[in-house]
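Tokens in:
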């Protein structure tokens, strides 16, 4: 499989062979399962409401049982009263969802396939910059015509580029070794380099 390679000015520079997994089959069911599990695993699960046994109130009866004209009341911590306990409110819990390594590997391959088949992967010969200047990254984004989009740059270790891009909204710079299915699908456009494609082959990402 071949695709076009662009330079930093957005001009066509040539073509490159890409791994076969970019053209693989895509299972929307598996991708949904993996992304849902990823989002679940990001949840802290620290939500908490107080039950009637935990709110701070005196245990004294508000008024006598009969003769006041009011409805019967035993305690001020009743869920029916203002500032009383909460019925069936959220309690701390663990949202962790276990996903097998095989599913993670296959879903990552499918995510790249889905993005490539939808025309959302752009291969650039190099994104290296000499200085950590936001302006340089902004110029690259403009040249590639991906302004106002959610863009993920998949690059090897490049501290200057990562620092320069961190002030730009909806721009994420990820090391290819740390990429996951959710981040690939989150992007409107994925920008990668030939060097990254070689690293993908080494990792043997396949379906």
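Residues out:
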């Amino acid at each position: 499989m071949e695709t076009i390679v662009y330079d930093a000015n957005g001009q066509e520079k040539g073509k490159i062979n890409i791994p076969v997994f970019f053209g693989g089959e895509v299972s929307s069911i598996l991708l949904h399962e993996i992304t849902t599990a990823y989002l679940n695993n990001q949840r802290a699960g620290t939500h908490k409401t107080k039950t009637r046994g935990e709110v701070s109130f005196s245990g004294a009866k508000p008024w006598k049982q009969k003769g006041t004209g009011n409805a019967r009341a035993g305690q001020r911590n009743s869920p029916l009263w203002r500032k009383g306990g909460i019925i069936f409110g959220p309690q701390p819990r663990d949202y962790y969802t276990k996903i097998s390594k095989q599913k993670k590997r296959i879903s990552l391959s499918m995510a790249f396939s889905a993005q490539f088949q939808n025309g959302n992967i752009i291969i650039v010969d190099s994104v290296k910059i000499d200085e950590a200047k936001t302006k340089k990254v902004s110029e690259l984004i403009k040249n590639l015509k991906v302004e106002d989009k959610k863009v993920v740059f998949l690059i090897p270790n490049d501290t200057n580029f990562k620092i320069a891009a961190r002030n730009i909204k909806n721009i994420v710079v990820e090391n290819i070794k740390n990429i996951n299915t959710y981040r690939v699908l989150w992007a409107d456009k994925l920008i990668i380099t030939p060097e990254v494609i070689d690293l993908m082959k080494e990792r043997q990402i396949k379906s």
